[in-house]
Design brief:
Number of strands: 12
Distance between the termini: 81 Å
Largest sheet: 3 strands, mixed
Helix content: 40-55%
Length: 455
C-alpha cells in the first residue's frame, strides 16, 4: 500500500518511511520487528508457564480473589470471599438453587463492581454457574491445557466441589412451580422406589365461605401404577420434627460436650516422629525438584513437552506424599470438626425445623436424615449415624442434675467414663461419619449456638 501510494507514509518510533524510500531497508526492519514479536511471545509464554508451575494463576483471578500489588500473589479479598463461601454452603446444603442463592447474595449486599463503570451490579445467574464450575475455587487451575496445583487459599475442598457438580449437573429438568414444598426430592416411595412429589389442593367451604389449601405428598408413579397412599404435608413435617426431637440433646449437656470437645478429648497416641520427619524431608526434596524444573524451563533448557512430562511425574509423587502426611496429621481436626458440627446441629435442629421458612426446613431435613422412605402411610427416617451416636451418649438422668453436681468436672469418675465413650466413638468413625456437613448458613451471621451458650 505504501509502494502503490495508498499510504503516504508510515511513522514508527525512530523514523518515517515514504513511498520513494528503499524497499530493501524497510523489508529488513520489518523482518527484525517480526522476529522480535515472535521471540517476545515465546518469552511471555515461558514466563507464564513458569508462574503457573510455581502454583500461581497467570491471569486475572476470579471473584473473591485479587492479586496483591506488592507480592504479586493471589489472596482472598473480603467481603466477597466470605460471602461466596456462604453461597457454596447454600448450594451444598441441597436446599437452594442458583436463583435463590443469587437472591441471597443480593440480600447480603454482595459488592460487585462493574468494569468500566462507577456503579455496581450483581453478576448474572450464568456467571454464578461459572463460579460453581470453576476448579480454581478448590485449589487447582488449568493453563494451556495443563492442570496445576495452586498455592492460593482454596474456598472449598475437592470433595465439596465434586458434590456441587453432582447437584448442579444431575440432569434433572425443573419445571416452573407455583408452590414451595420443603421436602420434595428427599423422600422415596417404599412400594416402587420412585421419588415422592408434592401438590397443593384448595377446597372451598360454602357454609363458612372459606377457602383452605392443603399439601399432599404422593408417589410420582414414574415406573407405573403404585398403590402407596398419599399423606399430608403436616404429617410429613410432624414425622420429621418428631425424629429430630428424639435425637436433639439437652442444652446443658450440649454446652458441656462442646467445651469438652474443644478442650481435651483429642489426646491421641504420639505418632512416630521419625516417619513424619522422613515424609516431610521427601516432600521438601520433591518441591525442590519441581523448582529446579521450572528454572530450567524458564532458562529455555527444557522443551515444553519434556518439561510437562517431568513436572507431571514430580507433582504426582508430591501429591502421593502429601496425601500420606495429611492422613496422619489432619484426622484429628477432621474428627473434631465433624463432632462439633454434629453437636451444634443437635442443639439447634429442633428450633430450626419449627420455623416457617420451607428452605430452612429442607436444609435441616437434608442434614438430619440420610434416607427417607414413605411406606403404607408411614415415614421411615434413617438419621445420620453421628447424630444417633451422640444421642446415646446423653446421660439417662436429667443432665442438669449431673452437670450441676460437678459430676462431669475434671477428675470425676463419671467424666472419665464419658471420656472413654467418646474415645470409643472416635475410634469407630467411618468416612461417612466424618462427612457430616457444617451448619447450613441461612445468613452470613447465622445465629447458631456458640460454645458455652444454650441453643
Amino acid at each position: 500500500m505504501l509502494q502503490e501510494g495508498t499510504l503516504k507514509s508510515i511513522r514508527t518510533v525512530d523514523r518515517e518511511f515514504l513511498p520513494e524510500d528503499n524497499v530493501l531497508l524497510m523489508a529488513v526492519e520489518s523482518g527484525v520487528a517480526n522476529q522480535y514479536i515472535l521471540d517476545l511471545r515465546k518469552a511471555v509464554i515461558r514466563g507464564m508457564e513458569g508462574k503457573a508451575a510455581r502454583g500461581w494463576y497467570p491471569n486475572r483471578p476470579p471473584q473473591g480473589y485479587r492479586v496483591n500489588p506488592e507480592t504479586k500473589e493471589i489472596e482472598p479479598v473480603e467481603p466477597q470471599f466470605g460471602l461466596l463461601r456462604r453461597a457454596w454452603d447454600l448450594l451444598l446444603s441441597g436446599a437452594f438453587n442458583v436463583t435463590q442463592i443469587r437472591q441471597k447474595l443480593i440480600d447480603w449486599g454482595y459488592p460487585y463492581p462493574k468494569r468500566g463503570s462507577l456503579g455496581s451490579r450483581l453478576f448474572s445467574e450464568s456467571h454464578l454457574y461459572r463460579i460453581f464450575d470453576n476448579r480454581f475455587y478448590c485449589g487447582t487451575f488449568t493453563f494451556r491445557n495443563q492442570t496445576f496445583e495452586g498455592r492460593h487459599q482454596a474456598m472449598v475442598d475437592p470433595t465439596e466441589f465434586e458434590k456441587a457438580q453432582l447437584i448442579l449437573h444431575k440432569g434433572l429438568t425443573r419445571q416452573p412451580r407455583k408452590h414451595e414444598f420443603a421436602f420434595t426430592g428427599l423422600i422415596r416411595c417404599g412400594g416402587c422406589g420412585c421419588f415422592i412429589t408434592a401438590e397443593c389442593k384448595t377446597k372451598h367451604y360454602k357454609t363458612t365461605d372459606r377457602t383452605a389449601a392443603y399439601e399432599y405428598y404422593r408417589c410420582t408413579r414414574r415406573r407405573g401404577p403404585c398403590h402407596e397412599p398419599s399423606v399430608t404435608g403436616a404429617f410429613v413435617e410432624a414425622s420429621i420434627a418428631e425424629e429430630v426431637d428424639k435425637l436433639s440433646i439437652d442444652a446443658d449437656f450440649g454446652r458441656w460436650l462442646l467445651d469438652a470437645l474443644e478442650r481435651d478429648w483429642f489426646e491421641t497416641p504420639e505418632r512416630e516422629a521419625n516417619h513424619v520427619a522422613k515424609l516431610e524431608a521427601q516432600i521438601q526434596a520433591g518441591e525442590q525438584r519441581v523448582a529446579r524444573l521450572v528454572e530450567l524451563r524458564v532458562a529455555g533448557e527444557l522443551e515444553s513437552s519434556e518439561f510437562a512430562e517431568l513436572r507431571a511425574s514430580a507433582q504426582e509423587e508430591l501429591l502421593r506424599l502429601r496425601t500420606r502426611l495429611s492422613a496422619m496429621t489432619d484426622r484429628e481436626e477432621t474428627v473434631r470438626k465433624a463432632l462439633v458440627n454434629a453437636v451444634r446441629f443437635s442443639l439447634d435442629s429442633k428450633r430450626r425445623i419449627a420455623e416457617d421458612d420451607p428452605q430452612i426446613k429442607r436444609a435441616v431435613a437434608t442434614t438430619f436424615g440420610i434416607r427417607y422412605v414413605l411406606t403404607l402411610g408411614q415415614l421411615q427416617i434413617t438419621p445420620h449415624p453421628l447424630l444417633a451416636r451422640f444421642s446415646e451418649l446423653e446421660p439417662p438422668k436429667p443432665p442438669r442434675q449431673r452437670v450441676g453436681a460437678r459430676a462431669l468436672q475434671p477428675g470425676a469418675p463419671l467424666r472419665w467414663a464419658f471420656r472413654d465413650q467418646i474415645r470409643t466413638l472416635i475410634a469407630g468413625l467411618s468416612d461417612e461419619d466424618l462427612s457430616f456437613p457444617d451448619q447450613t448458613p441461612f445468613a452470613p451471621n447465622a445465629d447458631l449456638p456458640e460454645v458455652g451458650r444454650a441453643a
